[in-house]
Amino acid sequence: MKYGVLGTGMVGLAISNRLAELGHEVMIGTREPSKSGDKLKSKNESVQVGTFAEAAAFGEFLFSATVGGVSVDVLKAVGASALNGKTLVDASNPLDFSKGMPPTLFVTNTDSLGEQIQRAFPNLKVVKALNTVTAAIMVYPKLVAGGDHDLFICGDDADAKASVIRVLNEFGWVNILDLGDITNSRALEGLMPLWVRLYGKLGMAMFNFKLVR
After folding, report:
1. Which domains are assigned to the chain?
2. Does residue 176 carry a pLDDT above 90?
3. pLDDT average, residue stretch 189-212
4. What confidence category does residue 98 fall into, taking pLDDT thresholds of 50, 70 and 90?
5. What is the pTM of this model?
6. N or C: fewer beta carbons within 10 Å in the chain?
7. What region, left, alpha or beta, does residue 180 occupy, with left being phi > 0 and alpha being psi -120 to 50 degrees?
8. 204 CB-contact burial (10 Å; exposed 0-12 / middle 13-18 / buried 19+)
Protein backbone atom coordinates (compact mmCIF):
# COMPACT_ATOMS: atom_id res chain seq x y z
CA MET A 1 0.00 0.00 0.00
CA LYS A 2 1.18 3.52 -0.77
CA TYR A 3 0.64 6.11 1.96
CA GLY A 4 0.85 9.88 1.82
CA VAL A 5 1.43 11.66 5.14
CA LEU A 6 0.81 15.41 5.17
CA GLY A 7 2.86 17.15 7.83
CA THR A 8 6.41 16.82 9.13
CA GLY A 9 5.93 17.50 12.82
CA MET A 10 6.22 14.82 15.48
CA VAL A 11 2.90 13.25 14.42
CA GLY A 12 3.75 13.11 10.73
CA LEU A 13 7.20 11.70 11.43
CA ALA A 14 5.88 9.06 13.84
CA ILE A 15 3.22 7.88 11.40
CA SER A 16 5.45 7.86 8.31
CA ASN A 17 8.29 6.03 10.06
CA ARG A 18 5.94 3.42 11.53
CA LEU A 19 4.30 2.77 8.16
CA ALA A 20 7.73 2.34 6.57
CA GLU A 21 8.76 0.01 9.38
CA LEU A 22 5.71 -2.10 8.59
CA GLY A 23 6.84 -2.41 4.98
CA HIS A 24 4.62 0.15 3.26
CA GLU A 25 5.64 2.71 0.65
CA VAL A 26 5.46 6.17 2.19
CA MET A 27 5.86 9.76 1.06
CA ILE A 28 5.76 12.52 3.65
CA GLY A 29 4.61 15.92 2.45
CA THR A 30 6.01 19.25 3.55
CA ARG A 31 5.75 22.85 2.42
CA GLU A 32 9.43 23.10 1.49
CA PRO A 33 10.99 19.70 0.76
CA SER A 34 14.36 21.21 -0.14
CA LYS A 35 14.77 22.57 3.39
CA SER A 36 13.61 19.53 5.32
CA GLY A 37 14.40 16.59 3.03
CA ASP A 38 17.76 15.64 4.53
CA LYS A 39 16.42 15.81 8.08
CA LEU A 40 13.41 13.67 7.24
CA LYS A 41 15.37 11.08 5.27
CA SER A 42 17.73 10.67 8.22
CA LYS A 43 14.79 9.36 10.25
CA ASN A 44 14.01 6.54 7.82
CA GLU A 45 15.80 6.20 4.49
CA SER A 46 12.84 4.49 2.84
CA VAL A 47 10.43 7.39 3.45
CA GLN A 48 10.23 9.61 0.39
CA VAL A 49 9.92 13.37 0.80
CA GLY A 50 7.83 15.63 -1.40
CA THR A 51 5.49 18.57 -1.41
CA PHE A 52 2.04 18.27 0.11
CA ALA A 53 0.61 17.84 -3.40
CA GLU A 54 3.15 15.18 -4.33
CA ALA A 55 2.51 13.20 -1.15
CA ALA A 56 -1.25 13.38 -1.65
CA ALA A 57 -0.95 12.21 -5.26
CA PHE A 58 1.44 9.41 -4.25
CA GLY A 59 -0.70 7.96 -1.50
CA GLU A 60 -3.61 5.61 -2.05
CA PHE A 61 -4.39 6.27 1.63
CA LEU A 62 -3.67 9.58 3.36
CA PHE A 63 -2.97 10.96 6.83
CA SER A 64 -3.52 14.62 7.73
CA ALA A 65 -0.93 15.42 10.40
CA THR A 66 -0.64 19.16 9.94
CA VAL A 67 -1.33 21.78 12.60
CA GLY A 68 -5.11 22.09 12.85
CA GLY A 69 -5.14 25.77 11.94
CA VAL A 70 -3.77 25.04 8.47
CA SER A 71 -5.25 21.60 7.78
CA VAL A 72 -8.04 22.76 5.47
CA ASP A 73 -5.79 25.25 3.67
CA VAL A 74 -3.15 22.58 3.01
CA LEU A 75 -5.76 20.26 1.52
CA LYS A 76 -7.19 23.08 -0.60
CA ALA A 77 -3.70 23.80 -1.92
CA VAL A 78 -3.33 20.10 -2.78
CA GLY A 79 -6.60 20.20 -4.73
CA ALA A 80 -9.62 17.93 -4.89
CA SER A 81 -8.33 15.95 -7.87
CA ALA A 82 -5.55 14.41 -5.77
CA LEU A 83 -7.96 13.64 -2.92
CA ASN A 84 -11.18 12.42 -4.50
CA GLY A 85 -12.11 8.84 -3.64
CA LYS A 86 -9.28 8.40 -1.14
CA THR A 87 -9.47 7.74 2.59
CA LEU A 88 -7.89 10.38 4.83
CA VAL A 89 -7.23 9.92 8.53
CA ASP A 90 -7.57 13.31 10.19
CA ALA A 91 -5.31 13.24 13.26
CA SER A 92 -5.30 17.02 13.74
CA ASN A 93 -6.90 19.18 16.43
CA PRO A 94 -8.36 22.71 16.28
CA LEU A 95 -6.05 24.10 18.94
CA ASP A 96 -5.72 27.88 19.32
CA PHE A 97 -2.58 28.98 21.19
CA SER A 98 -3.05 32.71 20.47
CA LYS A 99 -3.79 33.44 24.12
CA GLY A 100 -1.13 31.13 25.51
CA MET A 101 -1.61 27.99 27.57
CA PRO A 102 -3.82 26.17 27.94
CA PRO A 103 -5.04 26.43 24.33
CA THR A 104 -8.68 26.81 23.38
CA LEU A 105 -10.50 25.25 20.42
CA PHE A 106 -11.14 27.48 17.41
CA VAL A 107 -14.14 25.36 16.45
CA THR A 108 -16.29 23.42 18.90
CA ASN A 109 -19.79 22.31 19.99
CA THR A 110 -21.72 22.83 16.74
CA ASP A 111 -18.92 22.03 14.28
CA SER A 112 -15.49 20.43 14.15
CA LEU A 113 -12.32 20.39 12.10
CA GLY A 114 -13.15 16.90 10.88
CA GLU A 115 -16.49 18.12 9.57
CA GLN A 116 -14.90 21.18 7.94
CA ILE A 117 -12.54 18.94 6.01
CA GLN A 118 -15.37 16.64 4.95
CA ARG A 119 -17.54 19.55 3.79
CA ALA A 120 -14.68 21.09 1.82
CA PHE A 121 -13.99 17.76 0.08
CA PRO A 122 -17.23 15.77 -0.20
CA ASN A 123 -15.58 13.05 -2.31
CA LEU A 124 -12.81 12.50 0.23
CA LYS A 125 -13.52 9.81 2.83
CA VAL A 126 -12.56 11.49 6.10
CA VAL A 127 -12.05 9.39 9.22
CA LYS A 128 -11.22 11.14 12.49
CA ALA A 129 -8.73 9.09 14.49
CA LEU A 130 -5.55 9.27 16.60
CA ASN A 131 -6.11 12.88 17.69
CA THR A 132 -6.62 11.93 21.35
CA VAL A 133 -3.15 10.47 22.00
CA THR A 134 0.43 11.67 21.71
CA ALA A 135 2.47 10.71 18.63
CA ALA A 136 4.38 7.79 20.18
CA ILE A 137 1.18 6.12 21.40
CA MET A 138 -0.51 6.65 18.02
CA VAL A 139 1.87 4.18 16.40
CA TYR A 140 2.97 2.09 19.39
CA PRO A 141 -0.10 1.75 21.64
CA LYS A 142 1.55 -0.99 23.69
CA LEU A 143 3.87 1.63 25.21
CA VAL A 144 1.02 2.35 27.67
CA ALA A 145 -0.53 -0.42 29.78
CA GLY A 146 0.49 -3.01 27.21
CA GLY A 147 -2.07 -1.54 24.81
CA ASP A 148 -5.04 -2.04 27.16
CA HIS A 149 -6.70 1.31 26.46
CA ASP A 150 -9.11 2.75 23.90
CA LEU A 151 -9.01 4.64 20.62
CA PHE A 152 -12.08 6.38 19.20
CA ILE A 153 -12.79 6.92 15.51
CA CYS A 154 -15.63 8.37 13.45
CA GLY A 155 -16.53 9.05 9.82
CA ASP A 156 -19.33 8.82 7.30
CA ASP A 157 -18.02 5.97 5.13
CA ALA A 158 -18.17 2.48 6.62
CA ASP A 159 -15.65 0.97 4.20
CA ALA A 160 -13.19 3.78 4.87
CA LYS A 161 -13.48 3.22 8.62
CA ALA A 162 -12.90 -0.50 8.12
CA SER A 163 -9.71 0.25 6.18
CA VAL A 164 -8.55 2.66 8.89
CA ILE A 165 -9.17 0.02 11.56
CA ARG A 166 -6.96 -2.41 9.61
CA VAL A 167 -4.12 0.12 9.61
CA LEU A 168 -4.63 0.84 13.31
CA ASN A 169 -4.50 -2.90 13.98
CA GLU A 170 -1.13 -2.97 12.20
CA PHE A 171 0.06 -0.24 14.56
CA GLY A 172 -0.98 -2.48 17.46
CA TRP A 173 -4.38 -1.04 18.41
CA VAL A 174 -6.85 -3.62 19.73
CA ASN A 175 -9.58 -1.59 21.45
CA ILE A 176 -11.10 0.67 18.77
CA LEU A 177 -14.56 2.16 19.22
CA ASP A 178 -16.40 3.56 16.19
CA LEU A 179 -18.56 6.43 17.44
CA GLY A 180 -20.48 6.87 14.18
CA ASP A 181 -20.58 9.64 11.59
CA ILE A 182 -18.17 12.55 11.18
CA THR A 183 -20.18 14.84 13.48
CA ASN A 184 -18.67 12.84 16.33
CA SER A 185 -15.42 14.68 15.61
CA ARG A 186 -16.90 17.35 17.91
CA ALA A 187 -16.58 14.93 20.82
CA LEU A 188 -13.12 13.65 19.87
CA GLU A 189 -11.72 17.15 19.42
CA GLY A 190 -13.59 18.20 22.56
CA LEU A 191 -11.44 15.81 24.58
CA MET A 192 -8.40 18.00 23.98
CA PRO A 193 -8.98 20.55 26.77
CA LEU A 194 -9.06 17.63 29.22
CA TRP A 195 -6.02 16.01 27.58
CA VAL A 196 -3.99 19.21 27.82
CA ARG A 197 -4.83 19.63 31.49
CA LEU A 198 -3.95 16.01 32.24
CA TYR A 199 -0.66 16.57 30.44
CA GLY A 200 0.02 19.54 32.68
CA LYS A 201 -0.94 17.66 35.83
CA LEU A 202 0.97 14.49 35.03
CA GLY A 203 3.97 16.24 33.51
CA MET A 204 4.11 13.78 30.61
CA ALA A 205 2.11 12.68 27.57
CA MET A 206 2.31 8.90 27.88
CA PHE A 207 -1.27 8.24 28.91
CA ASN A 208 -4.64 7.48 27.34
CA PHE A 209 -8.28 6.89 28.16
CA LYS A 210 -9.83 3.51 28.89
CA LEU A 211 -13.57 2.89 28.74
CA VAL A 212 -14.72 0.65 31.59
CA ARG A 213 -18.18 -0.92 31.27
Report:
1. 2-202 (3.40.50.720)
2. yes
3. 97
4. confident
5. 0.94
6. C
7. left
8. exposed
